[in-house]
Amino acid sequence: MGDLIQILVLVIIGAVLLWFGYSLFAGQLTRVRRSMKPRAKRQQKRNTANAGDPKTCPVCKSRLADGELVQTMAYPSITGGRDRLMHIQGCVYCIRGDFERSCPVCQSSLSARDKLVARMFERPLRRNHIHILGCFKCKRKGK
Predict the structure, then answer these.
(1) Tens place of pLDDT for every residue, the chain, 143 residues?
(2) How many domains in the chain?
(3) CA-CA distance, 63 to 91, in Å (whole number)?
(4) Do 77 and 119 fall within a single domain?
């Protein structure tokens, strides 16, 4: 009787260890499979928005999640007014090359190094207003 209980306990411990090992291995495997999705499938799932919507990248028009920011460089105002010149690089996704970058003014394709020129109007008690003037290509053409 004692041998039968000992064998039963070992079988139960073995089954628990097998279940634990399988769940650990299967969990790791599904994470690896999720990160190995092709880039084309990730692009199809992109949540696009209209240009000018809040929390939207003006370069690739993708909706940004909470905490994601667009890389910009705002220069000081020469006249001391409330408007400043600004260069917009884009969000993490379009800088990394996941999404197509285009100028919202002339619709031309932008490389990863191209920037948009904008004016930032500082408004007290409200969010700042950004007005995009275009990329360097359409600024040279005079559009």
Answers:
(1) 778 889 999 999 999 998 888 877 776 655 555 555 554 444 444 566 666 667 888 888 888 888 888 888 888 887 777 788 899 998 888 888 888 888 888 888 888 888 899 988 888 888 888 888 888 878 666 55
(2) 2
(3) 10
(4) yes
Q: Which residues contact 48 (CB under 8 A, 6 or more apart)?
A: 61, 62, 63
The pTM of this model reads 0.59
Q: Which amino acid is at 143?
A: K
Angle at 38 (CA atoms; ends 37, 39), nearest 5 degrees: 115
Question: In this structure, are 91 and 32 located in the same domain?
Answer: no
Q: Which domain holds residue 127?
A: 45-141
For the chain, give me the number of helices (H) and strands (E)? 4, 4
Angle at 131 between CA 125 and CA 137, to 5 degrees: 155
The 3-state DSSP class for residue 117 equals strand
- φ, ψ for residue 39 (rounded to 5)? -65, -35
Retrieve residue 139's tokens.
């600024």
Rounded CA-CA distance 61/115 in Å is 15
Residue whose tokens read 């999720």: 34
Rounded distance, CA 143 to CA 135, Å?
Answer: 10
